[in-house]
Amino acid sequence: MNVQELKHPGLKQWVEDAVALMSPDSVEVCDGSKAEYDRMIQITIDAGLATPLNSEKLPGSVLFRSDPSDVARVENRTYIASEREEDAGPTNNWINPAELKKIMTELYKGSMKGRTMYVIPFSMGPVGSDIAKIGVEITDSPYVVANMHIMTRVGTKVLEVLGSSGVYVPCFHSVGKPLGPGEKDQGQWPCAPLDKKYISHFPETREIWSYGSGYGGNALLGKKCLALRIASVLARDEGWLAEHMLILKITNPEGEVKYITGAFPSACGKTNLAMLIPILPGWKVETVGDDIAWMKFGKDGRLYAINPEAGFFGVAPGTNNESNRNAMESCKKNSIFTNCGLTEDGDVWWELIGHGAPGKEIIDWKGNKRPAPQSDKSPKGEEIAHPNARFTAPASQCPCIAKEWEDPAGVPISAFLFGGRRPKTIPLVNQAKSWIHGVFMGSIVGSEVTAAVISDQVGQVRRDPFAMLPFCGYHMGDYFKHWIKLGQSHDESKLPKIFFVNWFRKNDEGKFIWPGYGENSRVLAWIFDRCSGKGKAEETPIGFLPTLDAITRPQGVSETDMQEILKVDIDGWKAEIADVRKNHYPKFGDKLPKELYTELDAIEKRFNA
Ligand code: O2Y
Ligand code: MN
Q1: 346: phi > 0 → left, psi -120 to 50 → alpha, else beta; which?
Q2: Quick one: which atom of ligand 1 is closest to the CA of 220?
């Protein structure tokens, strides 16, 4: 389709203005067809950016290598440009929107010369669902078009729902590397230098402008930019929730079904939990979503969740048949790999894939030939795959995808989980006493910084309230208020019950006490039962803890270990409370809701009683 055929006058004008500004050689409106996807892939192969993979091992799949400066989300170049700085809050980068638009307009001038502009109409959520939202991304990257085909619903069907006057979130994206006459990418991943990259959000006008990066969350604008940063603002204004949460369907041996969502900071195994294979006989766990949940109230007063995405953008290193067999199966065909190693037989490889690489040599993520590794481990800094290497795979290919994952009405949620990597203090599982107590627990979520990220904070707990710190499009203090208000304005008995989980407790030797992965189903079963008014528990100052016999013990976990991970660590909690009071809550200034200080005082009092 060409631009003249667009039936929405506002959209047509917006595209024409973008064409005048960015000066592409040609413009295409994406139809979302398989032929279009194949053409995008062929364009990237011809430009030397993609390598087709072994068609017997990974049919329909390709490998990309990005520029070493463009390998992950860039938080220090991500902006929330609200009119007032105080509306972005202390945890977001803020620039005045007019000033930022002036800077970026200069960058966008002629930025698509020598390239094609693709106009991608996309739906976050099943097309036409009441909970779904439409976006239109303009991009000069065929890599982005192909990834958007997998991660969202793209094309003509979206334009039909949009009609001539529908609302959409306009999203600009340019890799920021115009081509001169006759110039080609010739295998060089196009992007701009770090100080020219901008991932910008304009919450009041619901716009996204991204420049200079072609990678992941910086460029696939439906994901973190629309589905979390802009959607969190829409959710606040419209009375719903846009959360960094997985969605699980759990079926017990009696055939009863419950759906739960869970928020975990990065590097806590969220995708693994979303695709967990339970070890408990008779229990079934299926995936509705692995990263984002949009939840609205139904007429019955319950919260219904949809997964706004259509695919997985999963971290490859560490994914193997033991840690996540379902993810391995999901990316066996029709997938895009980015920054993985390439074996001699045209397969992908990454650290902790579960085996060494075949043959004599392997090509690493930078395109260098290296000796094929015998084991699946590499010294830090010498990895074959980049630690943030990714697979993009259609959710429909996941063996444990729930049949209702695309239900436009969403699934009714019984429980929220909050968790993080906490080697000490936080027990294996703990149920909040009330909605407000649960909001308090969400507000203090923290996770130990692991060696997977380059940071001088390794080993320290970094607070990441509701796992939303990098993704909330407004002041986090107001975000806490939004959660509190939802509780006050709805029947609490119909709201999801809130649980805190911690799979990462360590003993004094620094070894994990709890085995995690499929064994986590023991904890999910207790949570399931608690939501049915069953499951044995004891009330403590921090919430309801399972009794020692309420959760069956995995092999290798002694009764003493179990006591350790299910007890209230009084000194640890006193230190936790002191840290929240001194270092965490003051960050949010006057906007920290008084109800959370009341909860903090109450828990402290319970310890001193
Ligand atoms: O590095 C990126 O661009 C992707 S980050 C990401 C991707 C999928 C799911 N979650 C995340 C995240 O950072 O939370
Ligand atoms: Mn995420």
Answers
A1: left
A2: 3
Q: Of 3.90.228.20, 1.10.260.40, 3.40.50.12780, 3.20.20.20, which CATH number belongs to 242-307+405-608?
A: 3.90.228.20
The per-residue pLDDT for 451 is 61
Nearest CA to ligand 1 atom 11: 266
Closest CA to ligand 1's atom 5: 217
- Region label for 128, one of left (φ > 0), alpha (ψ between -120 and 50) or beta (otherwise): left
CATH number of 315-397: 2.170.8.10
Question: Best mutation site among 69, 73, 225, 232 for ligand 1, i.e. most ligand atoms within 8 A of its Cβ?
Answer: 73
Integer Cα distance of 96 and 202 in angstroms:
10
Catalytic entry in 268, 331, 340, 398? 268
The predicted structure's pLDDT at residue 131 = 87
Interatomic CA distance for residues 40 and 143, integer angstroms: 7
pLDDT in tens, 55-98: 999 999 999 999 999 999 999 999 999 999 999 999 999 999 99
Domain chopping of the chain, boundaries: 3-30+73-238, 242-307+405-608, 315-397
Going by pLDDT thresholds of 50, 70 and 90, the confidence category of residue 457 is confident
CA angle, corner 498, sides to 492 and 502, nearest 5?
Answer: 175
Please report, for residues 254, 329, 354, the alpha-carbon distance to residue 325 in angstroms, rounded to integers and kept in the order given.
26, 6, 11
Q: What pTM does this model have?
A: 0.97
Catalytic annotation on 268? Answer: yes
